[in-house]
Amino acid sequence: MLALTPAIAVTTVAAAASADPPSSWEDNPSVSTLHVLMVLVGLPLALFVIITLLVYLPSMVRGERYKPGQAWRSEPEWFGGPRGGAEALQGGDHPQAVTAGDHEDNRGGASARW
Question: What does the alpha-carbon distance between residue 59 and residue 99 come to, in Å, rounded to a whole number?
Answer without folding.
Answer: 44
